[in-house]
Amino acid sequence: MSKKILILFLLILMIGGAVSLFIFGGGSLPLISPLFIGNDQTGKISQKISRFNLDFSKSKELSTLEAVPRYVVYNSETGLVYYSKGTGLRMSPASFSKLLSTQIAIDLIPLDKEITVSERSIDKVPTILGLKSGEVIPASDLLRGAIATSANDSAQALADGAAKISEIFPSEYIYYMNEKAELLGMFHSHFVNPDGLDDQNQYSTLEDLAKLVNNVQKNYPEIVTAGKSDNQDIEQTSTHGRYYLPNWNGLLGVYPGVTGLKIAYTEDAGYSTIVTAERDHLSMVAIVSGTGSYLERDRATADLLDAAFMTKGLPAVRVSTLMLNRHYQVWGDLARKIRSEIKLTHDTTAK
């Protein structure tokens, strides 16, 4: 009898330890189920689901993109792929992860909810807005910051705020990101943070990302709108400061018909982008990952869009290096201004 009691006691200790890790910062510890804590949000995150698969039957590589490791361009309505390479390779999704984490936020809370920025949310490396702990900002503004400007502090604040309002733990929020990915058929992806900073346990493929993009296009007009917004800044109020919201999509306003959607960069991912475009009622999506510069990324994406639209008889746009460099010059001036103001604010606060 004493042996059975000892075994039971050890099991209780093991379960208690697992629960402690689960609740109080297990990091990348796989979650069992939110039902274990009792505030199940599965119904909410399961409502907006559109399944989508790419059709590679006519796909081929584009000879001019030999140096680009991963890319795909496809018809967003039919899924027909025109050109692709490395679409099944595991890679860092970087800030493409924000397309998933913001879906969860929208599933859980109305975007007119006010979110209080926590110290945890601002402990991020660039790109950031420069949010300050204690500020109160509408979720809708944090969404635009996360998508258009790809600000890591904005994405983390949105995720943490949505979790708090929904009375779930941050670790549960990550659980729901992975549940949502599985519902979308993203079986070769896994996520451990809402902003996309590199982690060996955070990975995806271009094929999975196409499923994520399709769900955004079909079910989340708020994210689509955020992806096309540019310099629609967050104006100062009594509860928060003013923040610039530039859109770092290099083809927005340069390639005719581009409507979004999301850029990404980390050391592991390289310069990457997802670009949506429509010309003559044809809707295309181009995804490029792993390039070595903004210029290589955007030239490759423009070439992919040209090649896809040309299969339908539309003329090539032929975006030039000069056109892009003019765009980057505007970016550079604004980025320096933003960094200077963030530094000034930080220095003033530290005194």
Question: What is the strand and helix layout of this fold?
Answer:
Layout: H1 2-23, H2 42-45, E1 70-75, E2 81-85, H3 98-108, E3 114-116, H4 119-122, E4 136-138, H5 139-147, H6 152-165, H7 170-183, H8 206-219, H9 221-228, E5 258-266, E6 270-279, E7 282-291, H10 294-310, H11 321-350
Antiparallel strand pairs: 1-2, 1-7, 3-4, 5-6, 6-7
Helix pairs in contact: 3-6, 3-7, 5-6, 5-9
Protein name: Peptidase S11 D-alanyl-D-alanine carboxypeptidase A N-terminal domain-containing protein
InterPro entries: Beta-lactam/transpept-like, Peptidase_S11, Peptidase_S11_N
Family: Belongs to the peptidase S11 family.
What can you tell me about this protein's structure?
- By secondary structure, the chain is of the alpha+beta class.
- It has a single domain (42-350), classed as DD-peptidase/beta-lactamase superfamily (Beta-lactamase, 3-Layer(aba) Sandwich), CATH 3.40.710.
- It contains 11 helices and 7 strands.
- A 5-stranded antiparallel β-sheet has the order 2-1-7-6-5, with helices on both faces.
- A hairpin with a 3-residue loop joins strand 5 and strand 6.
- Mean pLDDT is 89; it is low at 1-30.
- Keywords: Cell shape, Cell wall biogenesis/degradation, Hydrolase, Peptidoglycan synthesis, Signal.
- Pfam families: Peptidase_S11.
